[in-house]
Every structure is written in structure tokens, then in C-alpha cells.
Amino acid sequence: MRRSIIAGNWKMNGMLAEARALVGGLLEQLDLAADSGPEVVVCPPFTALSTVGELLRGSQIRLGGQDVFWKERGAYTGQISPQMLTELGCTHVIVGHSEPRGRFGVAEPDFDQEILDYFGDSDVSVNRKLLAVVASGLTPILCVGETLAERQSNDTDAVVSGQLLRCLQDLSPERAHRIAVAYEPVWAIGTGETCAAKEADRVCGVIRDTVRRLFGGHTADALRVLYGGSVKPDNAADLLGRPNIDGALVGGASLKAVDFAEIVAAA
């Protein structure tokens, strides 16, 4: 049986005092066993990683980064390497989230194209990040998903499988079992909109089938596929009870200890 993952993506939220308070609430709310129940990960902003890591020391909650660069060191101002994340105690890292790709939900501010070009992640750069992360020993949570326009054009399956094929290029079968994949429909991220559980499960099945074509049935059956996109306590049980959904990548609800704990309990 696949062990589920509940990962909280704090995004650009959490000054240090807020991070301390949130972790304190999580440690009070969550009663996690080492060998059973879901794997729980929190992904604070880079500025809070050290503080949160210290607070989580000795607990069953794991630490994750929100992004990563594929080089170990060098003249790459503003970037962070897999080795730096590992040194801070991270075990997981989000790779290829739609926001660093410049793909935002319909409720986002109206960024013009020049501003969107600032967010330069592509399938090529995500592939480099993923390969570097796996080689470093971290567990990548690879994000894929379609925009509203792509869904309305009935291109969801082609977009999601195409992203996977490009992002997983050159990944060896021996290392493929190390990854987790999060289906995050862009139109449901931070918008309050949630993909219907039945449809989310279907697309997660498309992800599993794509991995099966690439790496075979054993890897596909072991792959943990998460859903992300306005996951809340009131929809978590329906989503997490589906056969192809093995966890959640939680945004806004991960900033409230009580809500996040309810989602963990649903898993």
C-alpha cells in the first residue's frame, strides 16, 4: 500500500514569529506515528527553513523547500541548491510549481506578459531541477497541471502527460521510484475552486498511466500522486478517498494549524 503524503506549501507567507506560532500549533494538533499514517511535510519560505527545521527536530513532521536550482554552487545570485536544502534539514522539495512557471490561477492579479516573463521556469529547467534533486537524495514533489484555457480546450490530458514526459526525461528507472507527482490544476490554485474529486482522480490516473509507459507497472503502482488546488478540511476526505490520489499539496489551508491537521486526519 502506498503511504500518503500531506504537504503544506506556505508560499510567500510566514515571518519568523508567524512560522514559530504555526509550527507550535501543528505540533499540538498532530499526533503522528513513525511507521503509520500519512507522511507530513511543511514547506516554509527559504527565510524560515532554519527556524522551522529546529522547531521540528525530533518530530515526525518533515521539512521541505519550495523550489531549488540544479547547480551545487556558483555565480547564481538568488538561487538555492539541493545541498543547501539538505544542510538545513530538508527531506523534500517542490519542483515545477505553476507559480514559478508564471502560470497563475484565474483569481491572481492581472500580471501583464512582461511581468509573467519574470517567472521563467519551463519543462526544461524543471527537468534539470528534478534530476539534481533526485541525485542529491531529496524527494521531489513534481507539479503538473493545466490552465483554465487548456481545460476548456479539452487539452488537460495532453498537457499533463506532456509535462511529465518532458520533466522526467533522462530519469533512470532506478531513481524513478524516488519521486512524487502533484496534480495541480492551475485554475484551482488559490482561487477557491476545486477540481471535482472524480475528475481529479481521473487525471491522477492519467499521471500514473504516463509513468507506467515510461518506467513500467511496478514503478507506476508505487508512485504517490498528490492532488493540489484549494484543498480544505471539507473536501479532503472525498479527494483523499479516491484510488489514484495518495495525498495532497495544500496551500492556504496549511497556514492554519487546525485546518491542516483536519486534512492530515482525513488521510
List keywords for this structure.
single chain, 267 residues, alpha/beta, TIM Barrel, eight-stranded parallel beta barrel, 12 helices, 8 strands, 15% strand
Task: Give the topology string: H per helix, E per strand.
Answer: EHEHEHEHHEHHHEHHEHEH
Query: Looking at CATH, which topology would you report?
Result: TIM Barrel
What spatial form do the alpha-carbon principal axes imply?
A: globular
How far is it from the N-terminal to the C-terminal residue, by CA? 13 Å
- What is the overall pLDDT average? 94
Distinct helical segment count: 12
Residue stretches low in confidence (pLDDT < 50, at least 5 long) are none
Q: Please state how the strands of the largest beta sheet are arranged side by side.
A: 1-2-3-4-5-6-7-8
CA radius of gyration is 17 Å
Brief description of this entry?
With 267 residues, this protein is an alpha/beta fold. The chain has twelve helices and eight strands. 41% of the residues lie in helices and 15% in strands.
Provide structural commentary:
The protein has 267 residues and is of the alpha/beta class. It has a single domain, classed as Aldolase class I (TIM Barrel). Helix content is 41%, strand content 15%. It contains twelve helices and eight strands. It has an eight-stranded parallel β-barrel, surrounded by six helices. The mean pLDDT is 94.
Question: What is the topological layout?
Answer:
Layout: E1 5-9, H1 16-29, E2 39-43, H2 49-56, E3 61-65, H3 82-87, E4 90-95, H4 113-116, H5 123-136, E5 139-144, H6 148-152, H7 156-167, H8 173-176, E6 180-183, H9 197-215, H10 217-222, E7 224-228, H11 233-240, E8 247-250, H12 257-266
